[in-house]
Amino acid sequence: MKKYLSVFAMLARGSLGRVLLLLCLMAAGQCGRFLHRLQNELILYESHVQQFAEEAEEITRLEGLFDFSTVSGTFAAAFLLICIVLCLPGCGWGAVCGYTVRRLRISERAVFVIQALYNAMMFVILWAAEVLICLFLCHTYVTSADPSLISHQTVGLAFYRNDFLHSLLPMADITVWIRNIIMLAVLALAAASFPYKQRRGKFAADIVSYALLTVIFFTRSVGDGFNTFVTVFFGLCIAAEVIWRVFANEEDGEEDTPHEENQYPYAN
Fold first, then answer.
1. Closest Cα partner for 162 from 25, 23, 34, 46?
2. Confidence at residue 103, expressed as pLDDT on a 0 to 100 scale
3. Residue 267: what pLDDT?
4. Residue 89 DSSP label
5. Are 35 and 69 spatial neighbours (Cβ–Cβ below 8 Å)?
6. Torsion of CA 35, 41, 44, 48, to 10 degrees
7. 68 or 82, higher pLDDT
8. Hey, CA dihedral for 170, 151, 143, 141, is it positive or negative?
9. In this structure, how many other beta carbons lie within 10 angstroms of the beta carbon of residue 165?
10. What is the sign, positive or negative, of the torsion defined by CA atoms of 128, 212, 112, 9?
């Protein structure tokens, strides 16, 4: 067990700090932009509420502020950067990883599984951080906006009316929960396959294609079945290809034999 924990710790040393830094930058950018927009909209609402009550209320709604403050765009940028960070540990140009794995005598496939689990944890942390940020922004809106704009359902309605918020936290929409779980698993596997293929002189396009697909199709409206089909279908295809290549490909099977010198092609 210790050798597997050592590999896990090695992966964490190589990327955890960068992931946390990106999360901090994401939070700062989203909060700064949202709060600035909220302040401006509340000032405009107070000055125009007498003449254009309905129009002013429409613009100042909580779900509208998330669209105008580019929260989803900042999240997409942070997500892509984190994907890049998670792909780097274990690539063939680093010697430290190779020395560690050869010392522990752990197979390539075991390293792949550990890295996939680690990647999944990082994506869960990203998701949880974004949910907490959005809830904080909702709380700030509720405590700052005019009482006429607030009700006990304001936050809940925002998570149904706003496509990004609903995709992030689908509430009772089971299909979106299933889609998000599949997307997370596929991203974790695809990111782990990048160093696995790179050590064999191949370029893994799996993580590139599915990360871009996630950015394009992550935000979905309620009841958008086509969006769910595209992300789930292509995700399952990519996951099947990655798993087959790692566990069923005969050409790679010999590399997991503990007596082979080339078992651990990490070091330069």
1. 34
2. 67
3. 37
4. T
5. no
6. -150
7. 82
8. positive
9. 26
10. negative
Could you give the count of Cα atoms lying within 13 Å of 55 in the half-sphere of its Cβ?
6
The two structure tokens encoding residue 138:
């909702």
pTM of structure: 0.85
- The tens digit of pLDDT for each residue in 90-137 reads 776 555 555 666 666 778 788 899 999 999 999 999 999 999 999 999
**Residue with tokens 């009700």, as numbered in its chain:** 151
Residue 197: both structure tokens together:
């293929």
> Are the CB atoms for 70 and 26 separated by under 8 Å?
no
Angle formed by the axes of helices 2-48 and 71-87, nearest 10° = 170
CB neighbour list of residue 78: distance below 8 Å, 6 or more residues apart: 22, 23, 25, 26, 126
Q: What SS3 string covers 129-182?
A: HHHHHHHHHHHHHHHHCCHHHCCCCHHHHHHHHCHHHHHHCCCCCHHHHHHHHH
CB 236 within 8 A of CB 182: yes
- Mean pLDDT, the chain, as a whole number? 82
> Does 30 score more than 80 pLDDT?
yes
What's the pLDDT at 210? 94
Region for 91 from its dihedrals, namely left if φ exceeds 0, alpha if ψ lies in -120 to 50, beta otherwise: beta
First to last CA, the chain: 27
Type of residue at 86: L
Handedness of CA 162, 165, 171, 177 (dihedral sign): positive
Tokens 């991203």: give the residue. 187
The alpha-carbon radius of gyration of the chain (Å, integer) is: 22
